[in-house]
């Protein structure tokens, strides 16, 4: 397995992801350099916070172009806000563009339940994906978010959870994947997902 670059742009829980990958014996490098993304065999885009701030930081550093340039060349995994940034747009605070790697957008979750959605919730898989190999319907993972993604193409929807209504839990198109939940905080299920992602590396 090759090395995975974990993108450092100032808005992510980088160390916990790196620790989970190290536990699985997967090599990582935390980096904010475009050249390092080019050299890596896979890329993880983490994120915690607000969509506009994170999108601005990616654009300011040029990492938006660097990440987009790797799409189609190698596996990419967005986690939490990192998944949302894969989409065309987000409207948290103000509407602004994302990376445009997954068609659709991100808006506040429509639910009668309290937001943010925090805690464990189960997954339903409408279609098969190598990211979820070995997992059963109803596997539980850990969420922290108030905004959810709406895919433009139904085939890009890989997992759904229920929080007073259906909420996008994971997406994928080609070699680009996203998890709204935190696999690095989701016990054995999350480790299985990260192991499967690591297995996509050359």
List the helices and strands and how they pair.
Elements: E1 4-7, H1 14-23, E2 28-31, H2 34-39, E3 42-45, H3 51-61, H4 63-70, E4 76-79, H5 81-84, E5 87-90, E6 96-97, E7 102-108, E8 117-122, E9 140-145, E10 147-151, E11 157-162, E12 166-173, E13 176-179, H6 187-198
Parallel strand pairs: 1-2, 1-3, 3-4, 4-13, 5-7
Antiparallel strand pairs: 5-6, 7-10, 8-9, 11-12, 12-13
> CATH superfamily, called what?
Class I glutamine amidotransferase (GATase) domain
Sheet with the most strands?
Answer: 7 strands, mixed
**The level-1 CATH class:** Alpha Beta
Which fold name fills CATH's third level, the topology? Answer: Rossmann fold
Structural class: alpha/beta
Biggest sheet, spatial arrangement of strands? 2-1-3-4-13-12-11
| Terminal Cα span | 6 Å
Please indicate the percent range of residues in DSSP E strands (runs of 2 or more).
25-35%
Count of separate DSSP helical elements: 6
Mean pLDDT: 95
**How many domains make up the 3D coordinates?**
1
**Number of beta strands:** 13
Series of secondary-structure elements, N-terminal to C-terminal: EHEHEHHEHEEEEEEEEEH
Helix content range of the residues, please?
25-40%
């Amino acid at each position: 397995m090759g090395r995975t670059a974990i993108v450092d742009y100032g808005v992510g829980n980088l160390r916990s992801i790196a620790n989970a990958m190290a536990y699985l014996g997967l090599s990582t490098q935390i980096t904010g350099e475009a050249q390092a993304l080019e050299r890596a065999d896979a890329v993880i885009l983490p994120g915690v916070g607000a969509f506009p701030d994170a999108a601005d930081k990616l654009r300011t550093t040029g990492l938006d172009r660097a990440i987009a340039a790797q799409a189609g060349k190698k596996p990419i995994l967005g986690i939490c806000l990192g998944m949302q940034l894969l989409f065309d747009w987000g409207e948290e605070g103000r509407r602004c563009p994302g990376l445009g790697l997954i068609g659709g957008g991100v808006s506040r979750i429509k639910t009668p339940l309290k937001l943010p959605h925090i805690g464990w919730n189960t997954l339903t898989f409408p279609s098969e994906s190598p990211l979820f190999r070995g997992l059963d319907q109803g596997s539980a993972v850990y969420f922290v978010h108030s905004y959810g993604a709406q895919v433009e193409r139904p085939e890009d929807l890989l997992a759904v959870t229920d929080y007073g209504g259906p909420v996008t839990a994971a997406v994928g198109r080609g070699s680009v994947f996203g998890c709204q939940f935190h696999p690095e905080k989701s016990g054995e299920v999350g480790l299985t997902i990260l192991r499967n992602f690591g297995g996509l590396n050359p």
